[in-house]
Amino acid sequence: MGRVGNWTSNRRIALPLAGGAVVLGLGGGLYVTGLVTGGDIDRGTSVLGVDIGGMSRGQAQQTLTRELGPAAAAPVAMKIGDHVEKAAPATLGLSLDTSATVDRVVRTGYGPATVIGRLFASADREVEPVIRMNEQTARAAVDRIGAATGQQARDGSITFDKGAAKAVAPQQGVTLIQDRALTTLREAYLRPGADPVVMPVERTQPRIGAEETGRAMRQFAQPAMSGPVNLTVAGQRLSIGPGVLGEHLKMRPDAQGRLVPALDSKGLLADPAVARPIGEVTAAPRDAVPRLDADGRVVIGDPGREGRQVTEAALGRAVLPLLTRSGEARSGELATVAIPPELSAEEARRLGIKEKVSSFTVEFPAAPYRTTNIGRAVELINGSVVMPGEEWSFNRTVGERTPENGFVDGIMINDGQYVKSPGGGVSAVATTMYNAAFFAGVKPVEHGAHSFYIERYPEGREATVAWGTLDLRWINDSGHPLYIQARSTDTSLTITLLGTKKYDEIRATKGPRTNVTPPAKRTGSGPTCEVQTPLEGFDVAVGRVFVQGGKEVKHEEFKTHYTPRDEVTCPPEASPTPGAPQAPGTQPAEQTPETGQAPQTARAAQAPQTTPTPSATATGGPLALGGTPSH
Q1: pLDDT in tens, 257-310
Q2: pLDDT at residue 631 above 60?
Q3: 537 touches 562 (CB < 8 A)
Q4: Strand 482-488 with 492-499, pairing
C-alpha cells in the first residue's frame, strides 16, 4: 500500500514538472527567436509614415535620414496676412534630430515575457519626431520676416489727378506675433500639406474702410470732377475746370471717420488760372501820396483809392457748395470786398504828415547796374510810413539783394578791393537814407560806414549794408509818423521824410582827418578784378547838433575809421566795369559790401565838439564834392 501511495504522490509532483519543462522548452525557443529576429525597434513602429519597425538602431537612423532628410531641408512656406514668405529651416533655427527620434522608439527591456510578447504584438505605433529649434536664430529670423512682411494700416482715401477722382483702397495693418510664431513654426515643421503655414498675426483695421471710401466717391468726389464751376465776379464770368479744382482739393477724415472735402482756397486764389481773371476785374487799393507844394507844405497829390478784392474765405464759400451739383446748378456769385488803402488823405492829415522834416540827395555817375539796383531799392522804400516808436530797417524793407528780388550784379568791396556782386550800388540808397534820418533827428540803432572812404559821400556821414551781417536801422522817436518819399534818376537819388518836426534845426559838424595812413599798391587777379585808385585811410568825427528855440539842446558825436584804399591794377585780360574807377584822379563808384570784409561801424560817443564845417539844416544836408542841399 505504501508504494501505491508514493507513486500517486510523485505523479502529482511530476506532472507539473513535466508540464513546466515542456513550457520552458517551448518558451525558450520563442525567446531566442525574439532576440534573434526582433531587432532594436518594435514591429509596426513608424515616424511620419516611415516604417522603422524591426530595425536596428543604426538601420532606423539611416532610414529616417534618407526618407525625411529632403523634407527636413525643404523651404518652409509661411503666410503672414496676405503675403507668403519662404525660408530654409536652418535659417529659421529648425532641424530634425534622427538620433534622438530613434532613441524614443528603441526597445528598453529584454526579459522573456517582453521579448516573446513583442513577437505576437500586431498594433502599429506612430512616433513623433524630435524637432530641434535654436531659439536665438529663430527669433532673429522671425524679426526679419515680420519687418519685411508687416504692413501699416492705411485708411481708404480719395485723390484728384488731372481732373479725375481716384479711390485708394483701405488696407488693414498686419503685425507678426513673435512668440506665437515660434511655436507655430515648431509645430508645423515636417507636417504634410502643400499649403503655407498660417502664421499668427495681429490685425489693425483702418479707420476709413471700403464702405466709407465708396460713399465719398459717389456722393462728392465724382460729382466734384464732373465739370467746371462757373462764377460771376464783378459782372464777369470765371470758369474753373476740374483740373484746376483738383489741384487744390482734398478729402480728409473728420472726427466721426467720414471723408469730407477740404478746399485750399488760398492756393486756388493764387493759381494763375484763377488769379489772372480775378485780377482783371478787381483792383488793389492805392495809398494817398503826400507831396510838397510851392510853399513847402505837405499836400495830398493823389488821394488814393479804395480797392476791391476777392478773399480766400469768399472763394471757398462760393466754390464748395457747387461741387456736388450738376449742369447749370454749378454756377454762382463770387463776392468782392472793399479794401481801404493803408494811407488815405484823411489818415495822412490825422497822423500829422504836414511838413518836410528832412531831405537828402546823392549824385552819382550813370551806370546801368546803378539805375537798376538803386531804382529797385527806391521802389521798395517809397511810400513807407514809420509810426512813432517803430524801427525802420533797410534790410527788412528792401530784402535780400538777389536776382529774384530784382537786383543785378554791380560793384562791391570785398577784402579791401572792388568786385562784382548782386545789388552793388545800393549803398547810395543807404547813405541817402542815413543822412535823411540824421537830419530828421531820429534815433540811430545800427549803421556802418564803408571800409574805405568813397569820395562822393560826406566824410563820416555815409552808410553801407550787408545782408545778414550789417543793417541800417533807426527808430522814429519824433512823436509823429514819418512818411518816406524816395525818388531816383539815372544820376541822382533823393529821400525826403515828411511828418512833423521835433526840432527847429539839425546841424552837422565835422572834425579834421586824424591817424592818416597811406595806401599800398597791389595787383589783382581773376575775372572779378576791378581797377582801384588809391586813397589814404583816416579817422574822422562828425557831430549832430539839435537846435530848439535858437538854442542847442542836444549834441551827438559819431566817429568813423577808414582803412586805406590800395591802388589795384588788373591783368590785361580783366576788362574794367563801366562806372568803376579807371585811373588816379577819377571818381570811384560807390560800393555795397554784401559779403567779405566787414564795414566799419560808426559809434555814437560823447566827445568835445570838433571843428565845425558848413552846417546842414533839418531841411537837407550838404553833399560831398560840390553837391547841393535839397530844399
Answers
A1: 999 999 999 999 999 999 999 988 888 888 778 878 777 787 777 777 778 899
A2: no
A3: yes
A4: antiparallel
**Mean pLDDT of all residues in the chain?**
81
CA distance 493 to 433: 10
| Residue 150 confidence (pLDDT) above 60 | yes
Q: How far apart are CA 517 and CA 260, in angstroms?
A: 75
Q: What is the 3-state secondary structure (H, E, C) of 541-592?
A: EEEEEEEECCEEEEEEEEEEEECCECEEECCCCCCCCCCCCCCCCCCCCCCC
Coil/strand/helix, residue 315? helix
Residue 557 Cα distances to 189, 486, 525, 560, 620, angstroms: 94, 27, 40, 10, 19
- What residues contact residue 4 under an 8 Å CB cut-off, 6+ apart? none
Q: What is the mean pLDDT of residues 511-535?
A: 87
DSSP state, residue 321: G
As a whole number of angstroms, the distance between CA 306 and CA 338 comes to 7
pLDDT in tens, 152-203: 999 999 999 999 999 999 999 999 998 899 999 998 898 877 789 999 999 9
**Which amino acid is present at 329?**
A
**What CA–CA distance (Å, rounded) separates 593 from 580?**
15
Distance CA 431, CA 327 (A): 63
